[in-house]
Amino acid sequence: MSSPEAGAGPGKKKRTRVSGPRVGAGKGEGEKVDVIKVLEAQQMKAELPKFNPGDTVRVAFKVVEGGRERIQPFEGTVLRRKGSGISETFTVRRVTYGVGVERTFPIHSPRLEGVEVLREAQTKQARLYYLRERSGKAARVKEKRKQYVKG
Question: Which of 51, 66, 82, 135 is the most buried if burial means most Cβ atoms within 10 Å?
């Protein structure tokens, strides 16, 4: 039993590469991507406060308890910003009663009421994970100096 193509067993065909347009890359595929982009654009928030890792922020987040909804503030230091577009998130850390608590918030979430920047910080890193091991004064971040124009 010899097959016409070397290396192919009985009943198997050798794969050949076909030039031309990819299967599934037709007109319909492009339309699906555009629909997703349109939906994402509708759900993204237009105005966002500018904040960076190291800044101290107060996040107002809607929380549902039982049948009622209330706004719960969460104040702490921004450890990181991650992602882009509709899936962008940021992580805030605070120490409460000696226990470190970190919470990640989606920036474009409808439950996020607002982010208030309380203190801007000057950092050399984009991820401040080293703050997890530090406590007290060692966990402080250098405050950004504001320049004033003489007039």
Answer: 51
